[in-house]
Design goal:
Order of helices and strands: HHHEEEEEEEEEEEEEEHE
Number of helices: 4
Distance between the termini: 56 Å
Shape: globular
Strand order of the largest sheet: 1-4-13-6-7-8-9-15
CATH architecture: Sandwich
Oligomer: single chain
Length: about 290
């Protein structure tokens, strides 16, 4: 065999391996892992039940909340925060969960009804044959001009099955940016462009499970089916830290390696982006 033959075979093997890695083995390493550098707190150290206490159970550090025909459940941090890293590990329910939302988010809705700020990680329930959708969202002062509610939704599928094990989900919020992370991989960066498009007021940390049949699954096409109840979400490994960033040395912004990992996720797993939705009125989202 000629050297050219062996060279072609060698290159083919390398390309095949690269394709397998990109498509099946997860994103490139972000190179920095904030969850391993931030200690966990016990649920009772940072949170308390907000509603549905009869549908909330704490066992060996894992909080289980559930929804049935009577009620869902939610929890809230003991104090508000003006910035920081907020994270938890979540294991979702398998099977039919359409219409049901499990969430982890920041909000000041109770203090500013009708004009609140919010930073969301929402797991949109799904049907038996489709993967979960993770929706990230940012609200600033609740509504836009008139009565138009302005969300900044970006949705993703995941490169793993979130029902098989716990995975880490995090929100980094500092005065310059909001970064959403999954297993320490940045999936979205929302930078501050001006004061009107970025939240600045203190927010509390929440988690909940509830019936959002009117919109949660394929814009309300599939509703919650209570023959599958109870719908369950499990939370553990709670983290709250006052840090400035998720890049090495605590700097703001993302490193080149983190940016490459985020680009991989967005190229392969992003399924909706409010900025490129032709049905949205973008006069309310000038950052687009």
């Amino acid at each position: 065999m000629s050297l050219v033959y062996y060279y072609v075979v060698f290159i083919s093997i390398i390309l095949l391996a690269m394709g397998s890695y990109v498509n099946g083995d997860g994103p490139p390493s972000p190179g920095y892992y904030p969850t391993s550098r931030i200690g966990s707190i016990g649920f009772n150290q940072g949170f308390a039940n907000l509603w549905g206490p009869q549908h909330q159970k704490l066992d060996n550090g894992t909080l289980t909340i559930w929804l049935d025909t009577t009620t869902g459940s939610g929890f809230k941090s003991l104090v508000p925060y003006s910035s920081g890293y907020f994270g938890t590990s979540v294991k979702l329910q398998s099977g039919y969960t359409a219409g049901v939302i499990s969430s982890f988010y920041l909000s000041n809705n109770q203090e500013n009804p009708g004009s609140h700020d919010e930073i969301d990680v929402e797991f949109l329930g799904t049907t038996l044959d489709k993967p979960y959708v993770v929706q990230t969202n940012v609200y600033i002062k609740g509504n836009g001009d008139g009565d138009v509610k302005v969300g900044r939704e970006m949705q993703f599928h995941l490169w793993f099955d979130p029902t098989k094990d716990f995975h880490n989900y995090g929100i980094l919020w500092n005065p310059n940016e909001i970064i959403f992370l999954v297993d320490d991989v940045p999936i979205r960066k929302y930078p501050k462009t001006n004061d009107t498009t970025f939240p600045a007021r203190p927010m509390w940390v929440y988690g909940s499970i509830w019936d959002a049949s009117s919109w949660a699954t394929e814009n309300g096409k599939y509703k919650a089916n209570y023959s599958y109840e109870p719908f369950v979400a499990n939370y553990s490994n709670f983290k709250i830290a006052k840090i400035g960033g998720v890049a090495p040395a605590g700097s703001t912004g993302l490193s080149r390696q983190q940016s490459a990992a985020m680009e991989w996720v967005q190229n392969n797993y992003k399924v909706y982006d409010y900025c490129i939705d032709p049905q949205r009125d973008h006069k309310f989202t000038p950052e687009c």
